Predict the 3D structure of the following.
Amino acid sequence: ARAEINLDTMDCGVYPFTADLETGFRGNASYQWTILDSNKQEIFDRDVFSFASNGGIISTRKSDTLKFRTGGKYFVRLNLNNSPLNCPNVYEDTLIVPPLLEANLALGPDTFVCAGTQLTFNPFLSNVNPPVSYQWSTMGVTDDGDFIDNSTANAADTADTFSISIPTVQYDTAVSIFIRDGSGCTAVDTIQVFLKANPLAVLPPDQRICTYDSFTVIPNLDSAYWVDPIMGDTLVQGDTLYKEWFHNGSSSPFSIEDSVTINLAGMYVIRIEDSLKCTDTDTMYLFVNDTVTALAGADQVSCYNDSFDIVAGGLDTAGNSKSGLYRWSNYNPLVPDVVVGTNDSFRIRSVSSTNYRLQLYVTEGGVECYDEDSMSILVNPLPVIELAPDESVCCDYGPILLNNKIVAPAGGPHSTGGWSTRLNPSLIDNSVF
């Protein structure tokens, strides 16, 4: 089987060709056209060239047209056979394709787009002859890499850049650009963008605590995952996320901890970032109730059978949506407390020395906080008086020193107290009768 390859040259990398069979060719001719690179390796990439008849990399026609997208040195190979004689032959012709208009949308190794973000394409053009016109289009891509029949090309998308916003992840997207330069040459490039669901950070609900309490915040990161677009593996990333905590807008000292224990009021934010730089944040507020301070008053000293007052302080509920109560009790470490009552003050008669505990409960925002204070009453016993036995004296006996008649308490004279008579007070002067 003999033939001659006849190549024609047109603009923009277009090469019509045909196989001219020799005179007297016998049998039924069959054709298989392939293209080799400069190292005579068969090319399987349709981004380098394609046949006009089928858009593929192999043609079985006698005549067809080559469309190159990349310049360089190529070999056109024809495998020719003549059945049923089956005397095959292989023919090659060298083709030098000059530099062609090319468009490249490659974003580098990272073609992932995080949900809720925007990606802008800025194509790299080479061998261009101005002016240049652009047309952008998009289409969905399934997890298996198949294109969804939902190609969209907006006639207004003719700028030299193209941006897509990703509100939510539904499926991967392919972005294509079609350009035409001043010489009428065209170029097309398509890139697949893998849409990546953001990791999800979930903090507990807002909390309220007392000043003496704290709260440990443990975020729920179980739903932070990534589906590998190549291997198809689902990688749970809850334990590999970068975490950063903020308190009232400022980065906190515990910024990379998995959980934090907090006791300062304010707004707490966690920001997480996965290996693809997709992020999420969540916010919780910590409310801290006002400090509760119970005031039982100072310790007191009292005489037996006297009365004394215990007065509570520290409860403030005026105009602040708080409520509270006092609880007084006398306590002994050896026995259970005995409740006195819940009034703010009590008048008590002195019987014995007693310790009193004041407990103050204040509810604010549905959370009850507590404090306690104590005071003591020291009860002194009354003095015991013993006098000398009664005496009989003559009316002209003279002055009688009454203090000499005191048997107990010993050690007089005493700083307080004195002698008196009901019938004639003037008969006693400075303890002398």
